[in-house]
Amino acid sequence: MVSPPSMKRCSMYLDEIVAAQKRGQAKGITSVCSAHREVIKQTLKVSKTFRVCSLIEATCNQVNQFGGYTGMTPEKFVDYVRDITAENDFPFEKVILGGDHVGPNVWQGEPADTAMDKAKVLVRDYVQAGFTKIHLDCSMRLANDPHGPLDVEVSAKRAVQLAKVAEESAGEGLRFTLRYVIGTEVPIPGGVTEHEDSILVTRVVDAQQTLEVTRAAFLREGLADAWEKVIGLVVQPGVEFGDDFVHPYQPQAARELSKFIENWPIIYEAHSTDYQTRDALKNLVQDQFAILKVGPALTFAFREAIFVLARIENELLPEGQRSNIIQVLEQVMLKQPKYWKKYYRGNEAEQAFKRNYSLSDRIRYYWAQPGVERSLSRLMQNLGDEVLPYRLLSELAGVTNLSATEIIEYMINKVLENYLGACGNSKD
């Protein structure tokens, strides 16, 4: 068994996961890809219960040198996480910070030279801020690239350029702890927009080509030491979700892919694992898809909790005193449709339903809006700290004897405990 990591050992915990997998142990790590404060808070609490490090990741769209959609630079995001750890009595040293899709993704509409210049600043800022797990992703076609999928040689060459910047940007101690993930067989963040009957698993020949071409590119640039820090490859194991469907993991379909990686000193990173069952997650870890990324499923759980509380509020308070949080969210989303409009298809009624209930959970982009924050604060003040009525909780949440705050924790923790349990961890 991999022993519970101490504070000092957390920087090496990813190496321990790889080593355990190569010994035939089904050990994994949950990668929480979210900037939502309550999600991060509960991640820390559940990590403490399971006695493991927390892996918290930011994407290039969320957090970059221009602020991203969260308004945070890498340095500010680190300070943000540090504040949450302090508030919750969790050692900051037990948090592994990851950068997801670190590359030119945000600047796909620009020529390669300018897009890559910005990507180099991005990776520099991530590393200097203290991120130690970096997903090098240069797979996207830039404005002056030929049409069609980007050639793997070009993608690898660009990824190596970013790795070189990362190595040069890290101080002596930090350079030792840097770990890289390569590859990119994932759809758009937050799930696919079309209902698909099946998901194609990455072909072994493609996984092998990515590894061999990228390794050769590292070595050509004199980055043999940096290549030794590559611990993960992003592939498609056959899992996906969309507005109203989830493709469950099928071990049989990924058997060849799983067997292939046994001969390499790395593990797979699986994206879009949201909404998989605990058994499916356990099977993924068993098959060396040992880094399980999750994001929308956690904010979806938060949204579920808030909607339950809003309905309880409707039963307990007269109309003039209610927060009207659901209506406020709808108004804000209609006024600012850029985060959902191109993702939610259908007629007006179908789009309205998706804004509230889509598994893609693009409502997550709106919780930080001032009007939404005020309404949410009023909701929590209205319901207070007392245990909510038994009959309402039983009917609307399926649990009893919880306060409003505890309902939020309960909903999010159900998801987190599935992940951490599937990764081979046990509670105190």
Mean pLDDT: 94
Question: What gross morphology would you assign?
Answer: globular
Number of domains: 2
Helical fraction: 40-55%
Approximately how much beta-strand content do the residues carry?
A: 5-15%
Major sheet characteristics: 8 strands, parallel, barrel
- Poorly predicted ranges (pLDDT <50, ≥5 residues)? 1-8, 187-192
Care to give the gist of this entry?
The chain is of the alpha/beta class. It has 16 helices and 10 strands. It is globular, with a radius of gyration of 22 Å.
Describe this protein's structure:
This protein has two domains: 10-294, Aldolase class I (TIM Barrel), CATH 3.20.20.70; 299-412, GI Alpha 1, domain 2-like (Orthogonal Bundle). Helix content is 46%, strand content 11%. It has helices spanning 13-22, 37-50, 74-87, 112-129, 152-169, 172-177, 204-220, 224-227, 255-260, 278-286, 296-316, 325-335, 348-357, 370-383, 390-396, 404-422, and strands at 29-33, 54-59, 95-102, 133-136, 179-183, 230-235, 240-241, 246-247, 267-270, 291-294. The radius of gyration is 22 Å and the shape is globular.
Features:
GI Alpha 1, domain 2-like, 428 residues, TIM Barrel, alpha/beta, 46% helix, eight-stranded parallel barrel, disordered N terminus, 2 domains, globular, 10 strands, two-stranded antiparallel sheet, 11% strand
Write the layout of secondary structure elements.
Elements: H1 13-22, E1 29-33, H2 37-50, E2 54-59, H3 74-87, E3 95-102, H4 112-129, E4 133-136, H5 152-169, H6 172-177, E5 179-183, H7 204-220, H8 224-227, E6 230-235, E7 240-241, E8 246-247, H9 255-260, E9 267-270, H10 278-286, E10 291-294, H11 296-316, H12 325-335, H13 348-357, H14 370-383, H15 390-396, H16 404-422
Parallel strand pairs: 1-2, 1-10, 2-3, 3-4, 4-5, 5-6, 6-9, 9-10
Antiparallel strand pairs: 7-8
Helix pairs in contact: 2-16, 3-4, 4-5, 5-7, 10-16, 11-14, 11-16, 12-14
